[in-house]
Write a structure and sequence with these properties.
With 844 residues, this protein is an alpha+beta fold. Among the domains are: 155 residues, Up-down Bundle (Glutathione S-transferase Yfyf (Class Pi), Chain A, domain 2), CATH 1.20.1050.40; 79 residues, no CATH class; 118 residues, no CATH class. It has a five-stranded mixed β-sheet with strand order 4-5-6-10-7. A three-stranded antiparallel β-sheet has the order 1-3-2. Helix 7 packs across helix 12, helix 11 crosses helix 28 and helix 12 runs antiparallel to helix 19. The longest helix has 34 residues. The protein is globular and about 85 Å long. The N terminus and C terminus are likely disordered.
Length: 844
C-alpha cells in the first residue's frame, strides 16, 4: 500500500521543461510524455545534457547573490529541470516495452543522479539557501518554508559536516543504496523452493503455477519376489516466491505441504540476514554522524510524529487495542481447524492462517470472487473514477488523444482532469494492464509536478498511474476482483493529490509531503471502493448491466471485516519491528533476530516458527526504513475524515471541495497538522510528547462496529449444535440462542459421562457454542444417549451469560429439550445440505 512517493533527494524530483504536450496536428510529433527530446532512446542523453546545462546556469545565477526570493525560485527551477529527467527516466525504466529505451533511461538515471549528488553537496547553493531562510520576512510563507526545507534536506546529506565526516557520510549513503539493491535482488534470485511428491498432494487448479518434476523410486513389483524396479513418480516443485506461496497457503489442504512451503518461504534468501544487519548498521552509523541517536529518530524527526518514542507509544496503544479481538479471531480459526481436522487439541500454526480464513470467509459470506468480479469490468471501474471526480469536485476526466510518440504502449490512455470553469487542471496517463518486463505492482509515477512559472502561467501536473491487471484492453473479460478495485482507488487518491496540487513550488507538489501524511488521501479513497452508494453508480454486471446488489456488497464488507483485527495486528507488528530494527541497536546483530521473534509472541496472537525470518523478505523495511508506521497513521486520519466529512453523503460536492481546497491543493506547502485541523477541526490529531499522533477515536469506533457486526456473523455460521438423545421420545434439539439451556445440558452431560469438559472450558460465553461443538463431538455418554453436533447457518444469535447460566443450571426436562419444531429442524437440515457445497460445513 505504501508507495515510493516521498522525496529522497534534496532536489526532489518531478518534471519540467515548459513544453506542454502537443495534442493536435498530426505533424507535431513529440517524444515520450510530450518531451521533444524523447523521440528516440538516444534523446535521453540530450535530455540529461540540457538539464545539466540549464541547471549550471541557474547555479551560477544563484552564486551571483540575487534576492532571497530569486534564490528560492531558481532553486526550485533547478529541481524542476533535473526532476523532469529523473522522473521520466524512472517511468521509462519501469514501463517501456523497448529494451533500448529502458537501457537509455537507466544510463540517464545514473548520470543525472551523479549530477544531483554534485548539486546536493554544493556549498554556494547551501549558503544561498541558508541566507534566504534567514530572510524569511522578505519571502512569502511558502517560499520561506521552501528555503527551510531545502536547508534541512541539504543537511541530511551532511553538507554541514567537516570534510572527513562528510566523506564517511557519502560512503555510508552509497553502501546503503547498494545494500538496498542487494536486498531486493536476493529476493528475486533466491525465492527458494520445495519439492512435493506425489503431485496429487496439491490441488490441480494450481498446478500451472508450479513446475512438474520427477523422481525414481525403487520398489518391488508385485509378483516377482525380490526384483526391484524403478518407478517414475510425478511431483511438483513449489517456488516459494511471494505470489506462489500465497496460492499454496490458500489452496493446499495437505498441512505438511503448507508447512514446508511456509518455512522455506520465510527462510530465504538467507543472504539477506547479513544484508539486513549491514543495512541496519550503516543506517545507524549514518544517523549517529548526523547527531541522532538512531536511524529511526533521523527518519521520524521531520514527520508529524517527530520522534520514535511518539511512534512507539502510538503503536503500543494500537497493539493493546487490537489484541483482545485478534485473540478472539485466532481462537475462532483454531476451533474451525479443530473441527475440520476432527482433532480437539490440534494447534493453529502460521501456515494455517490463509487456508482456514479463506474457507471461513467463503462459507461465512457465501462469496464467490468470480461473481463479485463480474460487476467490476475495468471500463466500469474507470467510469467509477469519473463519477468521483464529477460528484466530489465538479470536474471531469476526459479521454484526450496523444501526439505521435507521446505514448509508450498501445494500452496507455491519457486523460485530462478538466474543470468547466477552470479548464484543464492536470493530466493522467493510465497504464493498467500487466505485461512482461513492466513494473510489477501498482503505483503512481510523477511525470511533472505542478508549479508556478509566472504570474499568469502554471505548469500543470502530469502523473502516470500504473497497475498490472491481467487481460487485454477492450476485452470484456477484464474484470477486477474487488481487491484490485480498492487498489485502483487507492492509487487514484495519490494521483488526485498530485493533479489538484497548486503550490508555487514543485518542491511541494502533490504527494511531496511528510511521509506519515502521504498515504492519507489514498487511504481515504479506498473507502469509496467499499461504499454501496458509490458502488451502485458504476459497478454493473458485465453482461446484464445489472447494478451490484446491495446484499453482495454487505457480504463483501462482512468478509473484509471477518479477520480485520488479525490483519491490523500484523500491520502494527510490522511497524513495531521496523522501529526496532532501525531504532537504537542491540549489542550484537544476532540479538535482533531473537528480539523480533520475541516481538511476534508479544504483539501478535500467532507463534514464531523457529528458524524462520520473515524480515528478510519484507522489502518495506528497506524502502520505508523506520517509516512503515505511516500506513497506520494514514488509516486513522482517513477514518476520521471519512466519518466526519464524507460518510453522511460520500458523493457530496461540499465534502469534495473541502478536501480539494483545504488539503489536496496545498501539497507539502503547509504543515500537515494545519491542513488536517483546517479540514476536520477538533478530533483528528493529538499532541503528545512533542509530536503528533492521530486521534484514533473514529478508527476505533469503525473497527468496533465492524467487529461487533462480525462477531455476530461468525456466530451465525459456526454454531449450531444439535443434540439428539437417542432414546425413544427424547429426540430434541436445543437452540443455541438459548445458551442457558445449552449450558445446563453440558453440565448434565459432563456429569453423566464423567468427562473432563467443564464449564470453564467453554468460557467466555461468546465461544460457548463453538467450543461445545468441538468438545462434545466425540462424546458418547451411554449406549442410550449420543450427542450429535452439526453446524448450521442461522439468524443472528446474541450471547448468553455463562455465569448466570452456571448458577441456574438444572436438570433439563424433555420439554425443555424438545423445543424445536419439526419444520424448523427441516429448514436447518435443508440449509445445511445447501451449505455443504461451500466445502466448509462438515457433517461429523
Ligand atoms: Zn499508497
Amino acid at each position: 500500500m505504501l508507495k515510493p512517493n516521498y522525496p529522497t533527494l534534496v532536489l526532489t524530483c518531478h518534471v519540467s521543461t515548459r513544453v506542454a504536450p502537443q495534442l493536435n496536428g498530426a505533424a507535431a510529433t513529440t517524444g515520450l510524455y510530450g518531451f521533444d527530446h524523447l523521440k528516440t532512446p538516444k534523446g535521453f542523453q540530450r535530455f540529461v545534457d540540457d538539464a545539466i546545462e540549464r541547471s549550471g546556469e541557474l547555479v551560477n545565477y544563484i552564486s551571483s547573490m540575487p534576492s532571497s526570493a530569486e534564490v528560492v525560485r531558481a532553486m526550485d527551477e533547478i529541481s524542476n529541470t533535473v526532476c523532469c529527467v529523473v522522473d521520466s527516466a524512472e517511468l521509462c525504466r519501469n514501463t517501456h516495452p523497448d529494451r533500448e529505451f529502458v537501457e537509455a533511461a537507466g544510463k540517464a538515471s545514473m548520470r543525472i543522479n551523479e549530477y544531483l549528488h554534485y548539486l546536493n553537496t554544493n556549498h554556494s547553493l547551501y549558503a544561498a539557501v541558508k541566507r534566504a531562510e534567514k530572510d524569511g520576512h522578505l519571502l512569502t510563507k511558502e517560499a520561506h518554508r521552501a528555503a527551510n526545507q531545502l536547508r534541512i534536506d541539504f543537511e541530511k546529506g551532511g553538507i554541514h559536516l567537516p570534510p572527513e565526516k562528510l566523506a564517511r557520510v557519502n560512503q555510508l549513503n552509497l553502501s546503503i543504496l547498494q545494500l538496498s539493491r542487494e536486498f531486493g535482488e536476493n529476493i528475486t534470485i533466491d525465492p527458494g523452493y520445495v519439492d512435493i511428491f506425489p503431485a496429487s498432494r496439491i490441488p490441480k487448479h494450481i498446478h500451472h503455477l508450479l513446475k512438474p518434476i520427477h523422481r525414481f523410486t525403487s520398489g518391488t513389483s508385485s509378483g516377482s519376489l525380490g526384483s526391484w524396479n524403478n518407478m517414475k513418480e510425478k511431483g511438483l516443485r513449489i517456488t516459494t516466491d511471494h505470489r506462489t506461496l500465497v496460492s499454496v497457503m490458500h489452496w493446499v489442504s495437505d498441512e505438511e505441504v503448507r508447512k514446508m512451503a511456509y518455512i522455506q518461504g520465510n527462510s530465504v534468501p538467507h543472504a539477506n540476514l547479513e544484508v539486513l544487519d549491514k543495512l541496519a548498521a550503516a543506517r545507524h552509523e549514518l544517523a549517529q554522524m548526523m547527531g541522532y541517536r538512531s536511524y529511526a529518530e533521523f527518519v521520524v524527526k521531520p514527520n508529524l510524529a517527530s520522534s520514535p518514542e511518539v511512534v512507539i507509544s502510538f503503536l503500543h496503544e494500537m497493539s493493546k487495542m487490537v489484541r483482545p479481538r485478534a485473540d478472539e479471531e485466532f481462537e475462532a480459526i483454531r476451533n474451525f481447524k479443530r473441527e475440520k481436522c476432527g482433532q480437539r487439541c490440534i494447534d493453529l500454526e502460521p501456515w494455517d492462517e490463509t487456508y482456514y480464513t479463506a474457507m471461513m470467509k467463503s462459507s461465512g459470506h457465501n462469496l464467490d470472487s468470480s461473481i463479485v468480479a463480474s460487476y467490476f469490468p475495468l471500463p466500469q471501474c474507470i467510469e467509477g473514477l469519473k463519477v468521483l471526480v464529477n460528484s466530489l469536485f465538479g470536474a471531469m476526466l476526459c479521454n484526450v488523444p496523444m501526439a505521435p510518440g507521446e505514448s509508450w504502449h498501445p494500452d496507455v490512455l491519457k486523460m485530462s482532469l478538466h474543470h468547466p470553469e477552470e479548464g484543464d487542471l492536470g493530466y493522467l496517463y493510465l497504464d493498467l494492464y500487466s505485461r512482461k518486463g513492466k513494473y510489477p505492482g501498482c503505483a503512481n509515477f510523477a511525470v511533472k509536478g505542478g508549479c508556478r512559472i509566472s504570474e499568469t502561467e502554471y505548469q500543470l501536473p502530469v502523473v502516470a498511474l500504473l497497475c498490472n491487471f491481467s487481460g487485454s484492453p477492450g476485452s470484456s473479460t477484464v474484470r477486477l476482483n474487488h481487491g484490485d478495485v480498492e487498489t485502483l482507488f487507492h492509487e487514484f487518491g495519490h494521483a488526485l493529490h498530485s493533479l489538484f496540487s497548486r503550490t508555487d513550488y514543485q518542491h511541494f507538489s502533490g504527494t511531496r509531503v511528510a511521509l506519515d501524511f502521504a498515504e492519507m488521501p489514498s487511504n481515504l479513497f479506498e473507502y469509496y471502493a467499499w461504499d454501496y452508494r458509490v458502488l451502485r453508480t458504476f459497478a454493473k454486471h458485465y453482461s446484464t448491466g445489472e447494478i451490484i446488489p446491495e446484499k453482495l456488497v454487505k457480504s463483501m464488507q462482512g468478509a473484509r471485516d471477518m479477520f480485520a483485527a488479525t490483519e491490523l495486528q500484523r500491520q502494527v507488528f510490522y511497524a513495531l519491528a521496523d522501529q526496532t530494527l532501525f531504532g537504537e541497536q542491540p549489542a550484537s546483530p544476532n540479538d535482533m533476530n531473537s528480539i523480533l521473534a520475541e516481538f511476534k509472541t508479544q504483539h501478535t496472537s500467532w507463534k514464531h516458527v523457529e528458524g524462520t525470518n520473515w524480515q528478510i523478505r519484507f522489502s518495506h523495511l528497506v524502502n520505508y526504513g523506520a517509516g512503515y508506521y505511516s500506513y497506520l497513521y494514514a488509516k486513522c486520519f482517513a477514518a476520521t475524515i471519512w466519518k466526519k466529512l464524507c460518510q453522511e453523503d460520500p458523493l457530496s460536492l461540499t465534502a469534495g471541495t473541502a478536501l480539494r481546497t483545504k488539503v489536496l491543493q496545498h501539497g507539502g506547502s503547509k504543515e500537515p497538522a494545519e491542513l488536517l485541523n483546517d479540514l476536520v477541526g477538533e478530533g483528528i490529531l493529538k499532541h503528545c510528547d512533542g509530536g503528533i499522533v492521530p486521534d484514533i477515536t473514529c478508527f476505533l469506533e469503525e473497527s468496533r462496529e465492524a467487529w461487533e457486526e462480525n462477531s455476530l456473523c461468525m456466530e451465525d455460521t459456526r454454531c449450531y449444535v444439535m443434540w439428539k438423545m437417542i432414546e425413544p421420545g427424547m429426540a430434541g434439539y436445543l437452540r443455541p440462542t438459548n445458551h442457558q439451556k445449552l449450558s445446563s445440558w453440558i453440565t448434565i452431560l459432563c456429569n453423566a459421562s464423567g468427562s473432563s469438559v467443564q464449564p470453564s472450558h467453554v468460557a467466555p460465553e461468546f465461544r460457548l457454542s463453538w467450543n461445545i461443538f468441538t468438545l462434545l463431538t466425540n462424546i458418547k455418554i451411554s449406549e442410550e444417549i449420543t450427542v450429535q453436533c452439526k453446524y448450521f447457518r442461522l439468524n443472528r444469535t446474541r450471547r448468553g451469560n455463562l455465569e448466570d447460566t452456571e448458577k441456574s443450571s438444572t436438570v433439563a426436562t424433555n420439554s425443555q429439550v424438545d423445543e424445536f419444531s419439526d419444520e424448523y429442524t427441516a429448514k436447518l437440515e435443508q440449509e445445511h445440505t445447501t451449505n455443504r457445497d461451500a466445502s466448509v460445513h462438515q457433517e461429523l
